[in-house]
Amino acid sequence: MRSLRYVPLAAVVVITQVALFPQLRILGVVPDLGLLFALAVAWYEGSETGAVFGFFVGCAYDLFLTTPLGMSGLSYAVCAWLLGFTQGAIARRSRLLAAAIGLLGGIVSGSIFVAASILAGADQLQRPAVIGVIVKAACYDALLAPALFGLVTLVRGRRTVGLL
Amino acid sequence: MALQSHGARRRYVLVIIVLSALTLATLDQRAGQSGAIGKVGDAVHRVVQPFASAADTVFSPVHDWFDGVIHSGHLKADNRRLRQQLAALEARQQEVTQAISANRYFNSFFHKPFLDDYKTVGAWVQSGSIDNLSHTITIDRGTESGVVAGMAVIAGGGLVGRIYRSWDGGSQVLLATDPTFGAAITMLPSGLFGTAQTQPDHTMRIVFSIDSRHPALSKFKVGDVAQTCGCPGSDFPTGIPVGAVLSATPSGPEVVVRLAPFVDFGALDVVKVVIWSSGDPIPKSLVPSTTAPTTTTVPGTTTTTSSTSSSSSSSSSSSSSTTPTT
């Protein structure tokens, strides 16, 4: 029940992603705010909560895309789950950790998204240029990750396993 | 024991999510935009549309200003070049108007409809692609204006794309630069039909078989125009310019043609949606009547007059005189 406090933030994240960020492209790419949100929730609340939020936020985002529904949901959820699962093994905490998580998460999530979409029939993604797009988007994610982690900390209301 | 059950629950959650994603993808692929998932998508678009519109209003000027600062050098050169082009185009306008009238008149004989005769709806482009891997735009007209999925979207240069999804107050357009985009086209002047498929480099590729009896038909020149053919089952009505030939490469018994689209996809502000779906009737004004041509003979000349019920004034004036007969 405690996790319900993230629901309004999840809605804001999806609306911001689809309404605002198409106007704020850098190097022709948009960031994955939903992914960063899922990663932040997984970091603070554990892998299951992160995966569930990642799945729903990703599916909401998928409703705006031309790729099969559920692919962003799947990639966000798996990434969040992996982060929550490996969180205990990350010994060193620093301000840059959020950015590093954003970068790695962006690459892993983008790769899962493309692979799953191709399996689901989106053959148009089978081209080398996609790799460049994933890397550029992951760099944008890294830029925004500290802000998203900060927002989730704010909503959470306390700083225990903080990054910032 | 507790740790073990927690680990099992973690895995259980992941498995459930993976299965749910696969189920949703399958349902989405099967039902398409007409199913329950498509309806949910439409509803969500309706909710987000005002926010997107507000963001566009606020950020477009900022975006344009940054663009102007970054590209000020190019803008001056562009401005000079465009002024020269405008002068040249104005000189040609009269000539083109006459050519269009003549073309319209001659095509009416072959029951070929013209784009002008279809109802169109103008729309503002609200935002570009929402994600990184597809090429779409969002426009501010939707089902309230009769816009439905599959309709052609055009701009000054020609074909922009097709409506992918529409809702009350907006539509999502799949651009002709998206690698999933394809269109049935006919080449001018040869009249050969083919399917143009968009490539990752945003050109379109068509493969024609060389007709051994008429090899000249399969010879294409750089600059030859391709337009939508309006073939049965095609999403688009006939006559929408698609692109010009960039290259034509013979490859065994085939010719591979690459087209460069006419539209500048980076500068789309206003587009038009052609209110015509596959299978819709040809506009009445374009269907000639079944009245047979009449031949009148006057001393010294024979005049053949073809009258149609078409509203176009050019048809009623269609007459040709042949050489004197006895």
Describe the protein.
The complex is a heterodimer of chains A (164) and B (326). Chain A is mainly α and 164 residues long. Chain A has one domain: Arp2/3 complex 21 kDa subunit ARPC3, CATH 1.10.1760. Chain A has 6 helices and no strands. The radius of gyration of chain A is 15 Å and the shape is globular. The model of chain A has no long low-confidence stretch (mean pLDDT 87). Chain B is α+β, with helices and mostly antiparallel strands and 326 residues long. Chain B is 32% helix and 28% strand. Chain B has 4 helices and 15 strands. In chain B, the strands form 3 sheets. Chain B has a 6-stranded antiparallel β-barrel. In chain B, 29% of the residues are buried. The C terminus of chain B is likely disordered. Classes of the chains: A mainly alpha (164), B alpha+beta (326).
Secondary structure layout plus pairing:
The complex is a heterodimer of chains A (164) and B (326).
Chain A: H1 7-20, H2 33-45, H3 47-62, H4 71-86, H5 96-119, H6 129-156
Helix pairs in contact in A: 1-3, 2-3, 2-4, 2-5, 2-6, 3-4, 4-5, 5-6
Chain B: H1 2-31, H2 36-70, H3 72-107, E1 120-127, E2 136-139, E3 152-155, E4 158-167, E5 170-175, E6 182-188, E7 193-198, E8 204-209, E9 225-228, E10 241-251, E11 254-261, E12 270-274, E13 294-298, E14 301-305, H4 313-316, E15 319-321
Antiparallel strand pairs in B: 1-2, 1-12, 2-5, 3-4, 3-12, 4-5, 6-7, 6-9, 7-8, 8-11, 9-10, 10-11, 13-14, 14-15
Query: For the largest interface in this structure, which chains are involved and how many residues does each contribute?
Result: A-B, 50 and 45 residues
* Low-pLDDT windows of residues of chain B: 286-326
Task: Round the Cα radius of gyration of chain A to an integer and report it.
Answer: 15 Å
CATH architecture of chain A: Orthogonal Bundle
Low-confidence stretches of chain A are: none
Question: What multimeric state do the chains show?
Answer: heterodimer
C-alpha geometry of chain B: globular
Distance between the termini of chain A: 25 Å
Query: What's the domain count of chain A?
Result: 1
Q: Major beta sheet of chain B, specifics?
A: 6 strands, antiparallel, barrel
- CATH fold group of chain A: Arp2/3 complex 21 kDa subunit ARPC3
The helix/strand order of chain B is HHHEEEEEEEEEEEEEEHE
Relative helix content of chain A: 55-70%
